[in-house]
Sequence to fold (307 residues):
Amino acid sequence: MIGHRVHRDLARAISAVENGITDYRGALAQFAAFGGPVRGDRRADVIGITGPPGAGKSTLVDRLIEGFRADDATVAVIAVDPSSPFTHGAVLGDRVRMQRHAGDPGVFIRSMASRSAGGGLAPATRDAVRLADEAGFDIVIVETVGVGQVELEIVAVADVIVVVTVPALGDGVQAIKAGLTEIADIFVVNMADRPGANASAVDLKHMVREGKRDIPVLQTIAQDGTGVSELLEVLNAKRNGDDTNAVRAVRFEVVRRARDEAVRRALATLDTHDAAAVLDRLRDHELTRNDAIDALALMLGGPAHAH
Ligand SMILES: Nc1nc2c(ncn2[C@@H]2O[C@H](COP(=O)(O)OP(=O)(O)O)[C@@H](O)[C@H]2O)c(=O)[nH]1
Ligand SMILES: [Mg+2]
Fold:
């Protein structure tokens, strides 16, 4: 049973990581000190919902909450809006759309702004998901706007990823980037009350057929709940099935960390006197750009890649 105290502690813990006051471990330690139930072995199922702004993600999440609550599962929602640095606009809209669950202690809803300047999920988002897991919620839903890296990085936090789209106008699934077939576990064409929904679903199915994985394509009308029970069925089947996404998530995370580390080392190398000397010679026309790149790449210890 999740009480109001857990809500309060979780909200505080998320604020602490969001504001950089503490890291995940610190927040968790504090959280335990509050007396919140820190979970042992069982993990929450993390569902990622991504797609373009206005596709109906929040409306759909509201319906999913309803469905999971009917099964007595507790749900935490972390809604991320990378475009808005403050709790305005779409983020406020998210809250309004899920408002009717506000008094239910089995439902925790938190909006966050993604502060990561280069795009991508803010580290605080990942921490918030883990904290909600630790707080004992059965299901954690992460809603992210599918822009740039965010939709790919959701792989690192979610066990199941739902990519929400809307009926395309004219040129089929052009709006859906090819990369999405690699991260999607389920495609949802929402706003199926609009013209072109069937055609979009057919296009998506064709696209899926070209890929390696079998990705169900569903249609929903989030506004009135049409098709949501089918989505819940598929989600529940995935929740109870093999954790195939864990393999992808771990691969993704290992590559991401390696990349971060490589970037850190490259920047440190560029700050050395030796690198400065090379750049001085480049500035003075004593070296070509390619020679400078080769020389600097050698300092990194890796193979030179001149462009
Ligand atoms: N016609 C129609 N409108 C919808 C549907 N689902 C959501 N909407 C509306 O689309 C707008 C954007 O929805 P929202 O859930 O905020 O989208 P999000 O930005 O993806 O979270 C809202 O006005 C919703 O009421 C749907 O299935 N059909
Ligand atoms: Mg939303």
Q: What stands out?
A: The chain has twelve helices and seven strands. The pocket of guanosine-5'-diphosphate (ligand 1) is lined by residues 53-59, 90, 93, 97, 190-191, 193-194, 221-223 (CB under 6 Å). Residues 252-300 form one domain.
